[in-house]
Amino acid sequence: EIHIKEPTEKEVNPRLLPGELLLCEANTVYKYIQEDGSNRGTYGKLICTNFKIAFLDDDSASDDNEPQFKNKIIGENDITLQCVDQIYGVYEEKKKLLTGQLRKYPEKLIIYCKDLRVFNFCLRYTKEEEVKRIVSGIIHHSQTPKLLKRLFLFSYASAAPNNTDGRNQTVMFDTLEDWCDELKQTKGNVKYKAVTNNEGYRLYEKLPLYFVVPICVSEESILKYEGRGIPIWCWSCHNGAALLKMSAFPKEQDDSTSQTQKAFLDGIYKTISKAPYELLKTDDLSSSLPSLQDIQTAYTRFKQLFLIDNSTDFWTTDVKWLSLLESTNWLEIIRRVLKKAIKVAECLERQHTNVLLIEESATDLSCVISTLVQVMMDSYSRTKSGFQSLIQKEWVIGGHGFLDRCNHLHKSDKEEAPVFLLLLNCVWQLVQQYPPAFEFTETYLTVLSDSLYVPIFSTFFFNSQHQKDTNTSGESLKTQSGPFRFLTVWDWSVQFDPKAQAFLNNPLYAEKPKPDKSQRKTTRFKHQRQLSLPLTATKSTTKRGFFREETDHFIKNILGKRISKFINSSDEPPNSFREFYDSWHSKPVDYHGLLLPLIDGPEIKVWAQRYLRWIPEAQLHGGGTIATAAKILDLMEEVQSLQVKMDEKHSQAISGDVHSVPLLRNSARLSSLFPFALLQRQSVKPALPTSSWKDLEDEHDLVKSDDEFVDLTGDMP
């Protein structure tokens, strides 16, 4: 029996963005609300444009009961073409992956999304010609390789009015001034300099226009190997120690070339080993961290746990969920990355040594580690504008290949790897362990991860600054309203109204008290940088520079040959990491100083809001952290109300810096995964329990007990 909402005569027209074109559509498509055997759902129209796949029903045209947290660009039933992961067809109850030309068209269409939504559409009641058009159109526009300029990004930028200023307080690092200011802020300008050798990309296309190197490195050295073998500055600690990265030479080289490069590197290290530079430590990330292929494999296994087709599959999987979670190795990779970042922080903080991260292109795992180290050591990077500026510096301008790593053009699965998602997962561990230390919330991180697949922002759709600049020049890209300009994802007003943006700000952020105006130096940032303080007195070392006996070993490493472990100083105790880690965790947390994540055992958790938000069975209605947050926000609202009254009494207006507090009324009805699962339906348990459930029901009444679902957020066993 099919329980359906009858189709109406009312015509529902899609809301199209500037530059968006309707390509194909199908009427009388039936969308299942939940695949639980009851076949409950609604009729509507399925459309495909050059931007998205969308399902339109009567509710699509209604503004009633709109959620508090609504995306203005992507609706509840919208899937951007870049967000489509895989498409399956159902033929006589059998699922088949759909690619290329189809000889036979399916009865049902299942779309798996990269943000882990699953859409089920029934095409039995749709005209055959419309089925052919819509299925072929969706597969062609979302799965086949395409040219860069065919992305909706270009259509939107050409047609949309340029009336937004996306910079806000985010530093874009696309000018020499931005880099000079960054050097001054971190006091790195004594030993490092911003260079302009790559203006016009005359040096190397993968390098940014401007970057920072040690002052003693000559212009001739920078030009010799297109920037390879040159230590590039990322950040300077308060004690002068710096974090650097380097692009290694290709692994396959003939002997003469190898000898030449060895001599070149030898000269570079003799140059930067002298005073005033600190002792140097190196880390070849290709040997000390998982490969990109390992990361991709682990994430592919991991995401399968959350792409749930139906309720029955969920309950079957739930019985062995923790063991399945551990077998993916995803949480272990997160643990290893966080541990590596702690080791680097120890070198900078306690040992006062420079750290050089080495990677083939220095645009993947080196970006992850350098970003995490700055988030852990620099409280400014834990503010919203600071974190956004950090992503711009290390990832966007730093040359991370978002286009290839996210496979936006569907050209090569071999290049795909969730490197940026790995970073966000690591930052989420810190956010959930130390909430008062961050100005932004986990909701901010979740919508940032979703924005990877929204092709109206240029932030995550190019491999390098050069690729972006070369594709925005030319007469063909001039617009009627003025010069051609892409939007940046940091302008959150494009996606969310002010009320929804309030969910991105942490109302419990422990902001550092501002000094008196008379003592405070003028800066362009709202927040003064509060860097970490040394934990212990550091023993002075007689050794300076790079160790001679390790030079040959290091050169081999640079040339692409693997080494077994991190190069250690002979006077460094082998358990120094554990000592550093335990010593920090034994003291009270300074939310404006150094932060070290907990990485032991079950401390590494699953990012529940991102991965479980579309699964009704995993939600606690009226429970979870949102229930606590609702009470706290009620108190904050009362405090703000009292503050207004006090200010009025003294004839003062309330400060504009206070974050608006989102009102969470009727918190008993909210899901634990709010704001993404607002008032979702209750879970419908399978009508016919599986044999596994029958065996378990006698010992534990898991089906009826709500408490058993609390641990779905996934502590490691």
Overview of this protein structure:
The protein is an alpha+beta fold and 717 residues long. Helices cover 32% and strands 11% of the residues. It has an eight-stranded antiparallel β-sheet, with helices on one face. Helix 10 (330-349) crosses helix 11 (365-377) and helix 11 runs parallel beside helix 14. It is globular, with a radius of gyration of 27 Å. The model is unreliable at 520-572, 653-658, 679-684 and 686-717 (pLDDT under 50).
Features:
717 residues, alpha+beta, PH-domain like, 8-stranded antiparallel sheet, 4-stranded mixed sheet, 22 helices, 32% helix
Calculate the terminal CA-CA distance, rounded to whole Å.
42 Å
Share of helix, binned? 25-40%
> What is the rounded Rg?
27 Å
Low-confidence region ranges: 520-572, 653-658, 679-684, 686-717
- Approximately how much beta-strand content do the residues carry? 5-15%
Largest sheet: 8 strands, antiparallel
**Mean pLDDT over all positions:** 82
What structural category characterises the helix and strand content?
A: alpha+beta
Number of helices: 22
Shape: globular
Strand count: 14
What is the strand arrangement across the widest sheet? 4-3-2-1-8-7-5-6
